[in-house]
């Protein structure tokens, strides 16, 4: 069975997870919660953990528990100088263009941040569709409903013909349960949760080698 649509996560997937981008975004989230929502600094980390575990993302948690301006929050936390964290990647562009499958961004970030990342990498025209956190409202990855929305927006009714490439094993576990072919991308030892059920690669260029095995097994 062939893969015809690849859903790509954005952050820590299209660029290295050790770039520092996520740490910078987390710092901005903490500052937002402290300065805009007036939450005591010593309460922010445990509160974020609670919101994440309950609602899937800090944003979804704040939407449910506090009156926030969603667009203001997204603009604020993603206001970071991308050029300080990773360079443009012509090799990534060449590689993505070599893949014959449809390519779609599927992210819990917002489209303004996603477009900035794609433009900085030099791959903004390599994807035919961008599905972001606003498209998924009120859900987010790894919730199954978010994947159903993504499939519908992509015009896909057969997840067994789709792949998800992501750095988050929880997202991949949901995708796999729906029939996606799943690929974890990241440096170092793969998470134990992969457990031989999720293909693991160190960088995106390793994807091609996984398709033949998938085709053979199916």
Describe this protein's structure.
The chain has 218 residues and is of the alpha/beta class. The chain has two domains: 5-17 and 86-217, 3-Layer(aba) Sandwich (Rossmann fold); 21-77, DNA polymerase, domain 1 (Orthogonal Bundle), CATH 1.10.150. It is 44% helix and 11% strand. The chain has helices at residues 21-35, 41-55, 58-65, 70-77, 90-98, 111-121, 144-154, 169-178, 208-217; strands spanning 5-8, 102-106, 129-131, 162-166, 181-185, 199-201. It has a six-stranded parallel β-sheet, with helices on one face. Helix 8 (169-178) links the parallel strand 4 and strand 5. Helix 2 crosses helix 3 (58-65). The longest helix is centred in the first third of the chain and has 15 residues, at 21-35. The chain is globular and about 50 Å long.
Secondary structure elements and pairings:
Elements: E1 5-8, H1 21-35, H2 41-55, H3 58-65, H4 70-77, H5 90-98, E2 102-106, H6 111-121, E3 129-131, H7 144-154, E4 162-166, H8 169-178, E5 181-185, E6 199-201, H9 208-217
Parallel strand pairs: 1-2, 1-4, 2-3, 4-5, 5-6
